[in-house]
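Example protein as discussed:

>
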Amino acid sequence: MNVKKILLAYSGGLDTSCILTWLKETYKVPIVAYCANIGQKEDFDAVHKKALATGATKCIVQDLRKEFANNYIIPAVQGNAFYESEYLMGTSLARPCIAQGMIDTALKEGCDAIAHGCTGKGNDQVRFELATKALAPHLQVIAPWRQWEFTSRNDLFDYAEKHNIPLPATREKPYSIDANLMHISYEGGILEDPWLEPPADMFTWTISPEAAPNKPESITIEFNAGVPVAINGNNLDPLELIELSNEIGARHGIGRVDCVENRYIGIKSRGVYETPGTTIIMKAHQAIETLTLDKEVAHLKEYLSLKFAELIYNGYWFAPEMKVLRKALEETQSHVTGVARLKLYKGNAQVTGRKAKSCLYSNHISSFENMSAFSPADSGGFININGLRLSNWSKTYESIEEGVRQTT
């Protein structure tokens, strides 16, 4: 590649530490290290110093926590976005947020290429590069894992030791960790055997459900048009609310998931996740929707949510179909206003009550104690009309099949 200046997505971990040195050796151009603060608990001053010490001409640390909360996590909650029924996609949602920050910074810094540390087998390479093609297709992309001679992380440990690069990981516990405001994910290394139970000391955020408090905790979460706005009656902005829900959920061991998922490129991958706060918020949101969404809208939204999650996971956040889909999902949220109550206990978040201002649930209509609000005779006609095709099918084909059986 003929490049003049490179912006590197930099975390200071094993991969990007080695990549920074490798880029300097290979391209011999200025390297701008870019680190996004999306809520991970990290010493960003140390990351900044390490980047400069490793050879970056400049290191930019950008605070994207509010952007991540407002424009990524909250829309995912409104859309009930689960990938393959379990994964709340903390990494998948973080990538377009980081990519937007990277691309904006690259253009401001006069970079003509961006580089990332995603492996050739993972989803993140797709997410970063599809975002680049959608937002700044003229930028070149450098993906060292698809270019260099190294084939494993053990090779990187050798390279780091040769170049005296300090690393946070060790050969003994080389699983990959990704942390942000929404979750912590663990992949690779000792977790690649799907039969092995994750080691207890691996989890750094949530307490184990067994060690969680023996007394349940009841909380309320209030929503306005599908957006969580208060916990226990205290009004909070999205970032504050997510941080508080994380604190509450973590102490009750909520949000641990161990799953084998299907990556976009066709490989199965085992991932272990801690998503304490958003797990609680999502359950509360779904509880309010049961009161406020029309039946057919709710059923249509289930289908749209599956597609929404698939597009997020596969890296199409900035695609035109995503814009259309998000508009449709936003339309469903106009009346999702109310309060849900949950009981938190040893890894579980159980909905124990819900109420809404615009509520489609009616005691008067649904109660078994008040049949006058609904004519039982109407149900008979409803059943007869909907059963007409079944009766016709049975009379036509069952008689034919019976005739065939008798002749044989």
Observations:
- The chain has two domains: 6-172, 179-361.
- The chain has a mean pLDDT of 92.
